[in-house]
């Protein structure tokens, strides 16, 4: 989807990991969802951003990344895992938050 206010196109590419604990289960660890989003600015080459539902840089998970003076954050990864929906039947979608970085 092209966002004119940022002169950038954002495309949800793939799920890298979805180890989030299903709603109906009590887990020791909440798990994490990680996605790849392709971004292309008007004057930039395409770049794949890896965004996670968890921010733990030591484990390789980042919830927000910088691209072309923008901060791109993963707000939601849907659907949330459920024992009632088979993994292959999930139709994933993401909600991103995009903020222009203050360059002053």
Key features?
single chain; 104 residues; mainly beta; 3-stranded antiparallel beta sheet
What does it look like?
It is a single chain. This protein is mainly beta. It has no helices and 7 strands. The chain has strands at residues 2-3, 8-18, 33-41, 47-52, 64-67, 70-78, 93-100. The strands form 2 sheets. It has a 4-stranded antiparallel sheet with strand order 1-2-3-4, with no helix packed on it. A hairpin with a 5-residue loop joins strand 3 (33-41) and strand 4 (47-52). It is elongated, with a radius of gyration of 15 Å. The two termini are 28 Å apart. The mean pLDDT is 89.
> Low-confidence segments, ≥5 residues, pLDDT <50?
none
Largest sheet: 4 strands, antiparallel
The percentage of residues in β strands lies in over 45%
H-E order: EEEEEEE
Tally the helices: what do you get?
0
Number of strands: 7
Radius of gyration: 15 Å
Shape: elongated
Strand order of the largest sheet: 1-2-3-4
User: What proportion of the residues is helical, as a percent range?
Assistant: under 10%
**For the terminal residues, how far apart are their CA atoms?**
28 Å
Given helix and strand content, the structural type is: mainly beta
Average of the residue pLDDT scores:
89
Structure, briefly:
With 104 residues, the chain is mainly β.
């Amino acid at each position: 989807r092209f966002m004119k206010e940022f002169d950038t196109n954002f495309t949800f590419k793939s799920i890298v990991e979805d180890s989030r604990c299903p709603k109906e289960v009590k887990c020791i660890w909440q798990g994490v969802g990680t996605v790849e989003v392709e971004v292309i600015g008007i004057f930039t080459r395409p770049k794949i951003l890896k965004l996670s539902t968890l921010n733990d840089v030591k484990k390789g998970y980042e919830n927000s990344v910088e691209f072309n003076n923008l901060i791109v954050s993963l707000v939601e990864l849907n659907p949330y895992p459920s024992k009632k929906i088979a993994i292959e039947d999930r139709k994933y979608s993401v909600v991103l938050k995009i903020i222009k970085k203050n360059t002053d």
